[in-house]
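Take a careful look at the sequence and tokenised backbone pasted below. I need to know what the token row says about the fold.
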Amino acid sequence: MRKSIRRIGFKVAASVVVIVAAASVTFFAQLAVPGDRATALMNLQTGQDKAWTPEELAPLNERYGFDDPIAVQYLDYVTGLFRGDLGTSYTQKRPVTEVIGGQLLPSLTLTVAALAVAWLLALGITLLTVKRGRVLSGLGSAWEALTASLPHYWVGVVLLVVFAVQLRMFPIIGGTSAWGTVLPVLTLAVPLAGFLGQVTRDEFVHVLDQPFVTTARTRGMSDLSVRLRHVLRHAVLPAVTLSGWALGALVSGAVITENIFGRPGIGQVLVTAVNTRDLPTVSGIVLVVAAVYVVANLLVDLAYAVIDPRLAAAGAR
């Protein structure tokens, strides 16, 4: 028990280090942006593009601490993260946590739903096609190879044109309604399903040839029962490992998807922030994506213990 607690503590500490590292990169990336930050902010607020005098820029420098030494600015930025302070939006004059927080739930709902649908598609095609004959196996492999190579923006545009514009089965701008969420979810889920299916298929074929599968068949278990109760649990482990990465990648892909379908979320916020050079908001979204990666990988470790308790026991020794 003590070793398990120590292992969890180590992973949490490593997660904190990753987030701080992402915050550090984000902070120094802001400094690397060409031009003076106070000048860029003044131009944004006034709608003018000109050279401002030091006296005119002084209030902004004092308000945002641009004149402080870099070390002081960095420490203020990092310590602010632990207080839940991501800074103030240049354009909206509100805390970044409020700007992002109001749009985070639609994005997380979209990504979690897409991950669930991707798993359903991947497992369904794997169960139905692996070693089911040359034709079915070939079709399954071809589907996975094709979908895994598709970019999100291409899938989104095709789904939008075919099912929303031409067939009018779904709204063009779906918002957050259940029916309007179908196409955005499929946009993210289809490429990921192909990728997860490829990984699961290879392991599935390998496990089907193991002696314990033959033993289960000789005991009279049906083929479907063998696949579901014995083979699938082992075959999904490599894909589960990638699910932590996949969830973070889906958050990134949601930026594109939300803009294609006019859906609210951090994607819309990010595009607006980039266009207006609202650096605190951009940095906050980057940190949110990094946090999603970290949390997702912690959840993957927990999923390992559920799928195969022997792995958790081995890690605790």
